[in-house]
Specification:
This protein is α/β, with parallel strands linked by helices and 187 residues long. It has a single domain (3-176), classed as 3-Layer(aba) Sandwich (Rossmann fold), CATH 3.40.50.1950. It has 7 helices and 6 strands, in the order E-H-E-H-H-E-E-H-H-E-H-E-H. The protein has a 6-stranded parallel sheet with strand order 3-2-1-4-5-6, sandwiched between helices. It starts with a strand and ends in an 11-residue tail after the last helix. The chain binds flavin mononucleotide.
């Protein structure tokens, strides 16, 4: 039983963050969740009604939801021990903020804390195309040990639905956070 932080920022693919939380909870872990203010807007635009209802009313006995600017939350401090943090999806704005140490929201502060404490940080950046600025920010963070997992399908797994692609990405993210889950693997 471990403690994880999941941040959901306003990039496309909010469902991926939601699925990461559900998978961690299903494995018996505790999840501290922080959803950026803009992520709610993105969720409204891209989720179907049923998923959006589930997302906005997401509750679980081991899920602790923090307000976007609550800097008194435990995850804002390095003294609060967590195994790893994932930002799923990660917007280019949040990527840029983290890469230059800008901790102006709880999500970004928690990422800053994860880095300064030398804990595992996993980012799922979503943007197309990627500019040199985006790539430089990713490179800078990758060199600090951050796992960068773009939400891409593995065509060799022959995904039939978008849910198959989502589950694959979620599996890769959780694995990088040190959690073994089942997803289609090669070989
Ligand atoms: C429907 C929708 C989709 C978006 N998709 C992306 C995206 O894929 N990548 C991205 O970097 N920003 C995207 N944005 C813009 C971000 O939401 C915006 O930059 C926001 O300020 C990010 O703030 P945050 O990182 O604090 O959540 C999208 C916005 C909307 C409304």
């Amino acid at each position: 039983m471990a403690r994880f932080v999941i941040g959901i920022s306003g990039a496309s693919g909010v469902i991926l963050g939601y699925k990461c939380c559900r998978a961690l909870l299903a494995e018996g872990h505790n999840v501290h969740l922080v959803i950026s203010s803009d992520a709610h807007l993105t969720a409204k635009e891209e989720m179907d009604n049923e998923s959006l209802q589930k997302f906005t009313k997401f509750q679980h006995e081991r899920l602790i939801l923090h307000a976007p600017r609550d800097f008194t939350a435990p995850i804002a401090s390095g003294t609060f021990e967590v195994q790893a943090m994932g930002i799923v999806p990660c917007s280019m704005a949040t990527l840029a903020a983290i890469s230059c140490g800008l901790a102006d929201t709880l999500l970004r502060r928690a990422a800053d804390v994860t880095l300064k404490e030398g804990r595992k940080l996993v980012l799922v950046p979503r943007e197309l195309p990627l500019s040199a600025i985006h790539l430089e920010n990713m490179l800078k963070l990758a060199r600090l040990g951050v796992s960068i997992i773009p939400p891409q399908p593995a065509w060799y797994t022959h995904p039939k639905t978008i849910e198959d692609v989502e589950d694959f990405v979620v599996g890769r993210v959780l694995e990088q956070m040190g959690v073994k889950v089942n997803y289609p693997r090669w070989g």
